[in-house]
Amino acid sequence: MALLDSIDGPRDLDRLSDEEMTELAAEIRRFLVTEVSKTGGHLGPNLGVVETTLAIHRVFDSPRDAIVWDTGHQSYVHKLLTGRKDFSRLRQKGGLAGYPQRSESPHDIVESSHASSSLSWADGISRAFTMTGQGDRHVVAVVGDGALTGGMTWEALNNISDDNSRNLVLIVNDNGRSYAPTIGGMARFLSDVRTRRSYRRFRTSTESFFGHLGAPGRALYRGVRGGLHGFLSRFSNNEALYSNLDIKYIGPVDGHDLRDMERALRQAKEYGAPVIVHTITQKGRGYEPALADVADQFHAVGQIDPETGESVETSTRPSWTSVFSEELVTLADRDERIVGITAAMLRPTGLHKLAEKHPGRVLDVGIAEQHAVTSAAGLAFGGMHPVVAVYATFINRAFDQVLMDVALHKAGVTFVLDRAGVTGPDGPSHHGIWDLAILQVVPNIRLAAPRDATRLREELAEAVAVQDAPTVLRFSKGSVGTEFDAVRRTADGVDVLREAPHKDVLIVTVGPMAKLGLDVAERLAAQGIGATVVDPRWVVPVPRSIIDLARDHRIVVSIEDGIRVGGIGTRIRQDLRAAGVDTAVDELGLPDEFLDHASRDEILEQVGLTPQAIARDLVAQVLGRRIPVARPLPGEDAAELDDSRLAEGTGTADHEQDERRR
């Protein structure tokens, strides 16, 4: 890695020869395969943009020239070239983020990794440069072809064409894939450009002819390549498409030919107005296991063997996604109205199995969550029951459509939110922690949060049976946890997981937080404090039995892995007050902050959602004083008491005395 070791910033590239740049590209690919195989991450997308990224940093002067990545998962090479070469803790606490992050480097501009937003960012930044007398600065937006399926991209293009006096370069990184193969009319248009027989035949024969002339012939070929592009553009409608938007078009360019890429980018840089550079790349370039992976070309991998690409992770538990995927097929076999919809995430959300079994009943709309939701409302009107499967973080983008197109029209649409709650290594923009607070304000919506695989199957079946309102099923990232059977189920479907002989604390858990609630109850029991633990299964609307149980307890504690402000705990407290129940409610959840990347357990510990922290606080609340407990909580050492000893028994009698004091 001799060349890569010598690169501490983009300007170190200036001294390298063409041959050294080619070798550097090879070194970077070897580095990515070696390092990402240890930690997991977005491997395929970064292997595909090595030369493109090198060319960008040779031609433009980052950070003076602003570089915006859409989406940020293809920024690993950018990180390497801007001095960040320690990938040992990639996507782990204290290590490099998997996306651009301003706190890491001034070279990182946009942190959000939601697709289709880069052109709007670029439009705004370039306008600001012009307005503040910095018009000589350039803005470069690297947008994947999949992002062109999102409507926001075209809104931006419409406005970019409104002012042609800006130094704005839009690089369309066209590999025919967003996550999986790119969907829709724009994808077919770009695919036509890539695969047009006349284009390929003319280019291949010409390149071969000049190649037979040796080094001088290859040099001549590169020299006339720009002219060839002009000639070949006669065989496509690219010029017409973008000229109608008043945006200069250059391409298509071989994104793996460093000289071609640099030449095209220098032309764009000198143009003095918005330019689109259309570059053709290959996802997973240079790594055979990735190229052989037809499904997603190693878009995102866990820990793998770098030689074979085989996973080395050892979990034997099924994932939440796989349980959903199988159960949806089972339900669809029985109900012909069920149809799946996803936004460029067919395999990640598990809809691929339904597509394989019933290919006519799955719609992938591209990176277009808003369209997916409103289209689902239309399908429901026409007699189908759509199941819209997206990551929880991406439902934020379609809130208006959930509210006004689905709920207002009483459409029977089921939303399945994968990666809900704390997701861990992908960081702030990918945590699915806003859905509970955002969606519960939608009138008549019903929200379910399964705690295990059995409940997921149950609640999915219940969700698709609802025909007059939106239903939501949310579950976590990763493997399904331990099954917890209920002691009993109430008439309105609440699972009571634990009942105590005396009713001190009612713990209401949301989905996979059931295990945490049971662990807390065990610690409280060791102090003589009785705790009832319930899983509502359907958390919105709040089941009546939760209100009845709360009436009989001294404290209600809600535990959720969503934002605490406006979360399920808030809903429970409001419903209790509306019912005339004045039992205190302790709402436990996540702070209204952007949580950095780390493992799920590390983040939950950081915010105090651990059995020890919750139990200690509850002991203090029940006893009416904040002092260490007389007997240690399980797993803890005995603590020093402050100024008094607690009674030997800390059960019902003591609590009744506390009640009289109140």
From TrEMBL:
Location of the region described as Disordered in the Swiss-Prot/TrEMBL record: 634-662
Entry keyword annotation includes Transferase: yes
GO CC terms: cytosol
EC class: transferase
Transketolase-like pyrimidine-binding domain segment(s): 318-482
Pathway entry: Metabolic intermediate biosynthesis; 1-deoxy-D-xylulose 5-phosphate biosynthesis; 1-deoxy-D-xylulose 5-phosphate from D-glyceraldehyde 3-phosphate and pyruvate: step 1/1
Binding-site residues for Mg(2+), renumbered to this chain: D145, N175
Keyword annotations from UniProtKB, A to Z: Isoprene biosynthesis, Magnesium, Metal-binding, Thiamine biosynthesis, Thiamine pyrophosphate, Transferase
UniProt keyword Amino-acid biosynthesis present: no
Function: Catalyzes the acyloin condensation reaction between C atoms 2 and 3 of pyruvate and glyceraldehyde 3-phosphate to yield 1-deoxy-D-xylulose-5-phosphate (DXP).
Family membership: Belongs to the transketolase family. DXPS subfamily.
Database matches in NCBIfam families: dxs (TIGR00204), PRK05444.2-2 (NF003933)
Protein name: 1-deoxy-D-xylulose-5-phosphate synthase
Lineage, highest ranks first: Bacteria, Bacillati, Actinomycetota, Actinomycetes, Micrococcales
Gene from which this protein is expressed: dxs
